[in-house]
Amino acid sequence: MTVPDVSRGLRRAGLLAVLAGVLLPGCESRIPPHRFPLTTAPATDAVPPPKPGAARPASDEAASAQRAAVEAEHTGKDVASPSVVPASASLPAPARSTPRPAGPSAFRALPPITERAGHLHALATRLQAPGATVEAPCLEPAGGTGCARSALTPFFTALDGLIEKPGTTPTVIAAFGNSLIAGDRIVDVVREELAAGFGNAGRGVLLVDRMAPYGGRSRTATVSNGWQPRTLGELKAPPHSFGITGVYHLATENRARGRFKLEGEPRGTLWWKDVKGAGRLVVSVDGTVLARTEPQGDGASRTTSFELPAGAKWLDVTAEGKGAIVQGVVLQQDAAGIVLDMLGVPSADATLYARMEEDALKSQLAQRDPKLLLFFLGGNESKRLEWKRTDLPTVRQDLAALLRRARAAAPGSACLVVGPMDAVQDGHAKGKPLTQRPFLEAAIGAEREVALAEGCGFFDLYTAMGGAGSLARFHQAGFMHDDLVHPRGHGLDLLGQLVADALLAGWVNEGAVPAPALTVTREDAPAGGEVRQTAEAVP
After folding, report:
1. 278 domain residue, yes or no
2. In this predicted structure, what is the pLDDT of residue 274?
């Protein structure tokens, strides 16, 4: 397979670059400069910056005409008012550099493109990854064809608040999912792209140790010893249920410890499991004890909160004896901005997420108070469909149960399901053409159907990355691991960029594009779910 000719795309990019910096009247006073500086982006390999002294459109009408011409050249048809920001990663300039009002909030405008995003947009062009829009059904119609509240309105309103009245409350995103996000690189990009426009409020939920002996530590303690990880993705259910992290760490020795480098957080929270026979957990800062747990041995999931002294450098969580269980540690700033909790687990699917204990799910999500529940699922479901270890009714039922449980625990949150990426059939022979996984599109259709019926948005990652054959292009470019299941390097970054672009475009365009009506009743979906024996662990 050869890399496609992108000369046409680069010519478009050059034209779009000329439009960078065009500003619609009324935007200047509504957008805080520390959030969305109205300057051109740094040079990238996708969109060169305008040359010094380059002419700008002589009038607002000319600017609108030029933008319409660019969009018409991309779509092949006339563009009608109002202007809509494209979610396509291959056309970054109008989406990320030209502020334009849309929807219920006139100040909504996309931040300037980041340098990394520019490179990833160029990569998307080379890999023929067009991007896609978020489908957000209307939950509360307004007069005529309007929509007072869509599936993503709570999240978009929270983003508005970060601009209008920043305050000291972060906007939390809780991202559940499988191994696609468990390495944290995809959600790193989503987190950082949103933080570039709305501020960064810190790390959020962390683990006391890694989920495996390998991997980075961006979302764990800096140094750990004496812990055994157990996850809800294991084939045989572990002896204890899980909280929202989907992971717990069991102390296998006295004085098991996780040490966290502090970043000025004013307080923290320890999530732990009160199991019979386990010793206490001790929280200390720079050698000074802040808190000790007092186990009752009743098996409940508990919370211990503590204040952190100013200037503290290191936080230690230490088990006094074997058997203590840590579910997670929360560290974040008292600041406006984005916090994205990575709650992905290798081998997870909606069925296995039923292993979350109900009280822990309710209490921990209530503490986090997320404004967006984000679910990256479908890859393991499509594989298990291929293996005949599950069926489509089970996929639908268990996803509906998960969405209902999470939304009941966080009723003020928006909800978005991200479908699986392109996938190829197991047993491919080396040197032979790759064959698409037979149940992939059926799994995507089932997830979309359930998401929209449950009042959640849906993002089709498979379409965004280029549909059938896109995995082969990623593989040829060196962005897939040898298993041809997991992306790596800039392949992961690009998938994260596609999701971030779609969320930002959806925020800007809310109200400019009619939201589809919620036409499917949710009453027939199951209220709860049980773990089924059809689930199988996937490496």
Report:
1. yes
2. 96
